[in-house]
């Protein structure tokens, strides 16, 4: 199962997210759930880098079963707002995947 852990601060803003595990929906290379989660999360990070000119802290496992993204704390207010909008869009997309494939993905906030 893919586990997505969203870390939020007191204001409810996403400060980091961690994705771990494998969906095992299908064989490697044909796993629709893993591909969707990867596309959504990497697309979000690429958008943050490109559109917000912000480099998050990134860590990735060698086997593709781990990805961690840490949002910098010292962003200007307008940049932080845009980063949060992109991250909340990611959450909506991941929740859509979870709604349809809940036995393969679990999202939790802490």
From TrEMBL:
Coiled coil: none annotated. Keywords: Hydrolase, Protease, Ribosome biogenesis, Thiol protease. One of its GO terms (biological process) is ribosome biogenesis. CDD domains: Prp-like (cd16332). The keyword Hydrolase applies. It comes from the Bacteria. The keyword Transcription regulation does not apply. GO terms for molecular function: cysteine-type peptidase activity. Belongs to the Prp family. This is Ribosomal processing cysteine protease Prp. It comes from Priestia filamentosa.
